[in-house]
Design brief:
The protein has helices spanning 14-27, 30-33, 54-73, 96-110, 121-134, 162-179, 195-210, 229-236, 249-261, 278-284, 303-313, 319-338, 343-352; strands at 40-47, 84-91, 115-117, 138-140, 155-157, 186-192, 214-221, 242-246, 269-270, 292-295, 382-387, 390-395. Strand 3, helix 5 (121-134) and strand 4 (138-140) form a beta-alpha-beta unit. It is built from 13 helices and twelve strands. It is globular. By secondary structure, it is an alpha/beta fold. The N and C termini lie far apart (112 Å).
């Protein structure tokens, strides 16, 4: 034997090579290892595209799609070499369990860098449990106070929370009534018993107490109610001067139609959702005239952006489309800032920066900034009113585009 030392040759089996590759892959960030080409950025979109809330989900998806398409047409994310937004769209139906399952699949199989969704608060709450565990930012326009009330770090609410919407509904209504020469002292509240309905009703209730207004009817009902006669009969027996229903589309149509057919013409102030989409007017015709509603955003505030939605989809930009478009705008700006599709970097940018360019400006105040809970501090609830086939902002005064039409008793 010579005195030279030799390095032994390593002979790895195919199984060992595969095992080593798998270990390396697991050490990589999940967003970089699955379904992620260098020239694309995968963004999760979870909305109720079928079932009772399908139209809201479709509207929301349309708003997101519009912004993503505009970004891609303008050259993509510049800081990432022109990477294109690739939307991974999934149907949450109206089932929170399904929504959570879809979210889990998106993160484990599709490598999404963020999630946008999911209109209904119950769906968003379920998704947020998954995104919080995985450290993935979730941007939403769901209303419930619980969305940003649980101490989560990875959820961002671009709209006012439901209790704030409820408070603003009362405040704006009292102001509008006084301008018309009325003083409201008694009101009726009816609301669906979901996270959205109960949170908003809570805001209505607390605001009424603060303003010394008596709530003479305070009634919850199940989502998807088929017979509203008991509710309307109860309303008839009260001496309420205004009624505040909080409901999605099908329930809102039943409530307003039944009220008007029974000759109840109280000033009616809806809780957003079903009261401020074109299908409300289509379903009720002239019965929708002058119905008021709170709205987290109003398309007449930023027509230079919202008219592009109308041109593409053939109807005015409903609030959920507008707010989801703003979410997509915030995410795109965060991607430009980080130059990487890293969920944790994106989360830190969203939590710290003020977004005052592009689609983020369609929200009230023309900008978005999140507080430590993830709530947009610049969100201002609007009061809108049906005028023919359009909604017009009538409060607060600094945002109003027309005077209110008030029907005194």
């Amino acid at each position: 034997m010579s005195g030279e030392k030799t390095t032994p040759k390593l002979s790895l089996s195919r199984r060992q090579v595969l095992a080593a590759g798998a270990a390396t892959a697991l050490a990589m960030p999940f967003y970089a290892r699955r379904g992620f080409a260098a020239d694309t950025v995968n963004v999760g979109v979870i909305q109720p595209l079928s079932g009772a809330n399908a139209q809201f989900g479709i509207n929301s998806r349309n708003g997101i799609q519009l912004v993503a398409d505009e970004i891609n047409a303008a050259g993509g994310i510049k800081s990432m070499g022109g990477a294109k937004i690739n939307l991974i769209v999934s149907d949450a139906t109206s089932n929170p369990t399904q929504a959570a399952t879809v979210a889990q699949r998106m993160m484990s199989q599709d490598g999404v860098c963020a999630v946008l969704g999911a209109f209904a608060s119950s769906l968003t709450l379920a998704i947020s449990e998954v995104t919080e565990r995985r450290g993935v930012p979730l941007l939403t326009m769901s209303f419930s106070d619980q969305v940003t009330g649980r101490g989560f770090r990875n959820i961002f609410q671009v709209v006012s929370k439901a209790s704030q919407l409820g408070d603003a509904t009362i405040t704006h209504t009292l102001d509008l009534a006084r301008k018309a020469g009325d003083e409201i002292t008694k009101i009726a509240i009816m609301y669906e018993d979901t996270a959205y309905g109960t949170s908003q009703a809570k805001g209505l209730r607390e605001s009424a107490k603060k303003h010394g207004v008596e709530v003479v009817m305070d009634e919850a009902y199940p989502l998807g109610i088929t017979d509203v006669s008991p509710l309307i009969n109860q309303l008839r027996r009260t001496d309420a001067q205004a009624v505040f229903p909080v409901s999605y589309l099908n329930d809102s149509l039943l409530i307003i139609r039944n009220m008007r057919q029974q000759g109840i013409n109280l000033p009616t102030i809806g809780g957003a959702a079903g009261y401020i989409i074109p299908d409300f007017r289509k379903g009720l015709g002239e019965l929708a005239d002058d119905v008021l509603s709170i709205s987290p955003a109003a398309y007449d505030q930023a027509p230079e952006y919202t008219d592009r939605f109308r041109e593409r989809f053939g109807y005015f930009m409903v609030h959920e489309a507008q707010e989801n478009a703003a979410c997509m705008g915030v995410l795109a700006a965060a991607l430009e800032s980080t130059g990487a599709a890293d969920p944790r970097q994106i989360r830190d940018v969203i939590a710290s920066e003020t977004f005052d360019q592009g689609w983020a400006t369609v929200m009230s105040g023309g900008k978005i900034k999140f507080d430590e809970t993830g709530l947009n501090t610049h969100a201002v609830p609007m009061m809108v009113q049906w005028r023919g086939d359009e909604l017009v902002t009538v409060a607060p005064s600094e945002y109003a585009k027309a005077d209110v039409v008030w029907h005194s008793l």
